[in-house]
Amino acid sequence: MSFSLVASAVLLGVGLAMDAFAVSVCKGLAAGKVRFSHMATAGAWFGGFQAIMPLIGYFLGSSFHSYIEKADHWVAFILLVFIGINMMREAFSKENAEHDANSSFGSKTMFIMAIATSIDALAVGIALAMEKDTNIWLSVTCIGLITFILSAAGVKIGSLFGSKYKRKAEITGGVILILLGIKILLDHLGVFGS
Question: What percent of the chain has pLDDT over 90?
Answer without folding.
Answer: 27
